[in-house]
Design goal:
It is a single chain. The protein is of the alpha/beta class. The chain folds into 2 domains: about 220 residues, TIM Barrel, CATH 3.20.20; about 120 residues, Lyase, Ornithine Decarboxylase, Chain A, domain 1 (Beta Barrel), CATH 2.40.37. The chain is about 25% helix and about 25% strand. The chain is built from 10 helices and 17 strands. Strands 1, 10, 11, 12, 13, 14, 15, 16 and 17 form a 9-stranded mixed sheet that branches. An 8-stranded parallel sheet has the order 8-7-6-5-4-3-2-9. Strand 6, helix 6 and strand 7 form a beta-alpha-beta unit. Helix 1 packs across helix 2, helix 4 crosses helix 5 and helix 6 crosses helix 7. The longest helix is centred in the middle third of the chain and has 18 residues. It is elongated, with a radius of gyration of 23 Å. It starts with 6 loop residues before the first strand and ends in a 12-residue tail after the last strand. The C terminus is likely disordered. The protein binds pyridoxal-5'-phosphate. The site of pyridoxal-5'-phosphate has 13 residues, from strand 9 and helix 9. Pyridoxal-5'-phosphate binds next to strand 9 and helix 9.
Length: about 375
């Protein structure tokens, strides 16, 4: 079978193993996991690998991804991480649980839940310093009180999200605050909150530090499962696979060239004025990969290959120490941005490796010349 290029090779067995190890680690602390699938477009095969590894929920920020997983028969409970009033009807239809911070949206969710004969479960997100989504702590009790009056909404938990926009580190203080707020809501309103969702992949260090976990009994984990690292300092987590995804592209030119462009230097394709170091004549290779396929800053090459730069459709490599010929395949590792962009590009084929079968999936539109299968 001919494989498409460029393609992203996805190891389901490594993803499953990462999920299993993390579920064990967090499980010992009484913390359940939601596997977050947004960086992989809610790819059902990846969600299944996470479930096989032990996650109890699958969470995604896009309703389209939730719908895709629902259609494919994913068994775990599906959690929508970001809601919008205009999507209330489809949210109630496809998601079991959603994260919310606005009363208007909750009212619309309740309205549509009633129409669909359902009770929609929600987790209320509280702001603890990162300044992305969240009800202010001083408003939380009143907010939950109002939410409890909505006939077709059930408040099942409180959550918070850090280290995303503001880069705020989860620590004893903000996590302690979350526990305190949970107790306050439970005591003042007489409700039992089943889920206290304390954060994301940035919570690893906090959880591993041996300090009190408090009321927190859930985390929403994407990057740690997918790329094997925590996200406060992007440190590898011992025992996890970091090479679960490989982006493979084809060499389309390989020549000895000067390392310093000649002629008058003006703006490059993206409006920047580039700077170069003169290293004399070097072997350079071009791979058929560019910013239409991947956020090229998110590519990681093996040590013998140096990524010199990129444009929409070309990545230029210094291949002096690595004999590359036309038609050769080059593998790149990916960081989170690279993964997200490669999974989103219609030009990148997706291939599952490891386990029994190889299976190629291509999202549309299908680039010319690609083999479908
Ligand atoms: C993306 C997201 C997560 C997962 O973050 P990771 O760093 O990938 O673990 C968790 N919660 C919310 C609300 C998110 O948007």
């Amino acid at each position: 079978m001919k494989l498409c290029l460029p393609r992203i090779e996805i190891s389901l067995s490594k993803i499953q193993e990462n999920a299993r190890i993390l579920c064990e680690f967090y499980g010992k602390k009484g913390i359940s996991l939601m596997g977050v699938s947004k960086a992989v477009l809610g790819e059902p095969a990846i969600a299944r690998a996470m479930i096989a590894g032990g996650v109890q929920f699958i969470a995604d920020s896009r309703i389209e991804n939730i719908q895709k997983m629902r259609r494919s028969g994913i068994s775990a409970r599906l959690v929508l991480l970001r809601t919008a009033p205009s999507q209330a009807e489809s949210i109630v239809k496809s998601a079991d649980i959603s994260l919310n911070t606005e009363l208007k949206t909750l009212e619309m969710l309740s309205y549509h839940a009633k129409a669909q004969g359902k009770i929609h479960q929600v987790i209320v997100m509280v702001e603890l310093g990162d300044l992305r989504e969240g009800v202010l702590p001083c408003d939380l009790v009143a907010f939950v009180r109002k939410t409890l009056t909505l006939s077709h909404i059930q408040v099942i938990g409180i959550g918070c999200n850090l280290a995303c926009y503001g880069g705020v580190r989860p620590d004893r203080r903000n996590m302690g605050m979350l526990s305190k707020l949970v107790n306050m809501v439970q005591n003042e309103l007489g409700v039992a909150l089943a889920i206290v969702s304390g954060g994301n992949s940035a919570n690893y260090e906090w959880a591993n530090s041996g300090q009190a976990i408090g009321e927190i009994n859930n985390l929403r984990i994407g990057e740690s499962i997918l790329l094997g690292c925590e996200t406060v300092g992007r440190q590898a987590i011992l025992g996890l696979h970091a090479n679960t995804f490989q982006l493979v592209a084809e060499v389309i030119e390989s020549k000895q060239k000067a390392s310093l462009p000649y002629g008058e230097i003006c703006q490059d394709a993206f409006g920047d004025i580039p700077k170069f170091k003169d290293r004399g004549i070097r072997q350079r290779s071009i791979v058929a990969l560019g910013r239409q396929d991947v956020l090229t800053a998110g590519l990681k090459s093996e040590r013998r290959l140096e990524i010199l730069g990129s444009s929409s459709d070309h990545v230029i490599l210094d291949s002096e120490n690595c004999h590359l010929q036309i038609g050769d395949e080059v593998n790149f590792g990916l960081d989170y941005g690279g993964l997200l962009s490669a999974m989103t590009s219609p030009f990148v084929g997706k291939e599952f490796v490891g386990g029994e079968h190889r299976e190629t999936v291509r999202t549309n539109p299908t680039p010319v010349g690609a083999e479908l299968n």
